[in-house]
């Protein structure tokens, strides 16, 4: 589906729960090839069950009974199936989509998946997680170790340039205001798509 050489590898930084908005969780991803003082980060809002499954794996906690994603991995092993990679390939209407690339050594198959499920399985199998450059551009924001966010004067979000929207989104993520971050993320995607369509 995609040229693997053009994909950007991601790493999972962690998952957090919002104290401002009960029930809201955010999975934070980052480009794996970033420098020590700057990176591109992507927040993905996930459900409670998926958040728990990912957190359990990140914290190396063994549940008393296998979770759904553990069952998937057990079946993969039982039938000699390898998850070669996960690719986040789409961002539409505020929703990410991912593809699982699996193989049994003879047959290669692509399986469409929710991004949270794909990442939960990839973490358990040690498989790499990638994103297309287009989706990376649409959904990521710039993180700098020495960066400071300066509040903007009240203006319509739609009127702000993409660079300022990215900073605004970073601010909301840092404040755990994930619903606002998702709204800004959607506006960035709309503005970028509009720019691509001009000319």
Write a structural description.
- The chain is α+β, with helices and mostly antiparallel strands.
- The protein has one domain (4-144): Bifunctional nuclease domain (Roll), CATH 3.10.690.
- Helices cover 37% and strands 30% of the residues.
- The chain has 6 helices and 8 strands.
- It has helices at residues 48-58, 68-78, 115-125, 133-139, 162-174, 178-197, and strands at 8-17, 25-31, 38-46, 82-92, 95-103, 108-114, 129-131, 141-144.
- Strands 6-5-4-7-1-2-3-8 form an 8-stranded mixed β-sheet, sandwiched between helices.
- Strand 5 and strand 6 form a beta hairpin.
- Helix 2 (68-78) packs across helix 3 and helix 5 packs antiparallel against helix 6 (178-197).
- Residues 149-154 have low confidence and may be disordered.
| CATH fold node name | Bifunctional nuclease domain
Strand line-up in the sheet with most strands: 6-5-4-7-1-2-3-8
Shape from CA axes?
globular
Name the helicity range: 25-40%
Largest sheet entry: 8 strands, mixed
Q: On the 0-100 scale, what is the average pLDDT?
A: 83
What is the CATH architecture descriptor?
Roll
The CATH superfamily turns out to be Bifunctional nuclease domain
Structural class: alpha+beta
- The DSSP helix count reads 6
CATH class equals Alpha Beta
Total domain units:
1
What's the total count of β strands?
A: 8
Order of helices and strands: EEEHHEEEHEHEHH
The parts where pLDDT drops under 50 for at least 5 residues are: 149-154
Instruction: Report the span from N to C terminus.
Output: 27 Å
Over the alpha carbons, how many angstroms does the gyration radius reach?
18 Å
The proportion of strand residues reads 25-35%
